[in-house]
Specification:
This is rRNA processing protein. This protein is of the alpha/beta class and 329 residues long. Helices cover 58% and strands 9% of the residues. Strands 3-2-1-4-5-6 form a 6-stranded mixed sheet, sandwiched between helices. It starts with a helix and ends with a helix. It binds zinc ion.
Length: 329
């Protein structure tokens, strides 16, 4: 189970690397809920993140997140400053990400701050800095009087708790709407990496089809293309079932044959060289090739050496790619 999950997460991060240009160390914006949850469930911030993202991480705390953490703390009467909370790691472990949202650098709402860091420009909708978001469902705070006998206090605490829940889910749904934002989430005592959001997935499909337009437009194009294709197919289902078989079946074969013929001309002589019996699968072609070779035997012999070299090269490449494929899996 554990191995299966880490394999899944490795694959996910690989997709972020290929599609959105992520690279290690992954920059992770952690929010106040995440830090509280990590502390509550006695997780180790960096090792836990590295296990989840399957690579080196560089966690960061925005100035506005820090302000939100400190604002929730009781005041130390001696210093008149809030107590430093236990769930706030030292800056050596968790450096500050300086952010400026206004002229006098006053901190803004944490969720607004994080979304603006993840997506500085709502026109382009790009996570330019390749941030990962690490967040969590809110946990009850020490001063949350959810169990209070005082109905008034309890209602106020419940309202505040509900508001934190709503803001937490707004942050996640906002982050999901930006293509290319990995989201780490702590729910109860489990740290998970969310699957690609729909906008991320759309961009990924666009890139894999060789459309290198970036951002949302490319995704929308892909979707509308798919939709158009589907509509066309639904109009006449008969041609849909027959069409691809007729069109796709014979064409690739007829494309391959001339290639294999050219390469296999030395093959009929090359019965001496034992390394190539597999390629004579297209045996029918050899007959044709025979006719050609008999007409020009001398030139073919000269070419044979070159061909054997190139063939050896070409057979080596797939063999290597097969093995590397095995390792990656
Ligand atoms: Zn900020």
């Amino acid at each position: 189970m554990r191995a299966k999950r880490s394999k899944k997460y490795r694959k996910l991060m690989h997709q972020y690397e290929m599609t959105f240009g992520f690279h290690e160390p992954y920059q992770v914006l952690v929010d106040s809920n995440f830090l509280r949850a990590v502390h509550q469930f006695k997780m180790d911030l960096i090792p836990a993140l590295e296990r989840t993202l399957q690579g080196k991480v560089k966690p960061l705390l925005s100035k506005c997140s820090l302000a939100a953490i400190m604002a929730a703390q009781p005041i130390n009467p001696r210093t008149n400053n809030p107590f430093r909370p236990q769930h706030l790691p030292p800056p050596t472990v968790l450096p500050l990400r300086h952010c400026s949202h206004n002229e006098d650098d006053t901190p803004i709402d944490e969720v607004e701050c994080l979304l603006s860091l993840l997506c500085p420009n709502t026109e382009t909708m790009r996570n330019k800095e390749h941030y990962t978001l690490a967040t969590a469902e809110p946990v009850a705070l020490a001063h949350d009087e959810l169990d209070s006998n005082d109905a008034k206090k309890r209602r106020r605490a419940e309202a505040a708790f509900n508001e934190r829940n709503e803001k937490s889910s707004a942050l996640r749904s906002g982050a999901r709407s930006i293509p290319g934002v990995p989201i780490v989430y702590v729910k109860r005592s489990v740290m998970v990496l969310e699957p690609l959001s729909i906008p991320s997935e759309r961009v990924r499909i666009g890139v894999e089809k060789g459309k290198f337009k970036t951002g949302v437009q490319a995704a929308l194009d892909v979707v509308s293309n798919l939709k158009r294709k589907r509509d066309d197919e639904e109009e006449d289902p008969v041609s849909r079932t027959r069409g691809p078989k007729k069109a796709r079946g014979p064409n690739p074969l007829s494309m391959k044959k001339p290639k294999s013929r050219a390469k296999q001309t030395p093959d009929q002589e090359g019965k001496k060289t034992k390394s190539r019996p597999k390629e004579s699968e297209a045996g029918g072609d050899l007959d044709n090739a025979d006719g050609e070779t008999t007409s020009m035997p001398k030139t073919k012999r000269k070419r044979r050496h070159k061909n054997t070299k190139t063939e050896a090269d070409s057979t080596e490449i797939p063999a290597e790619s097969l093995t590397t494929g095995g390792i990656e899996d």
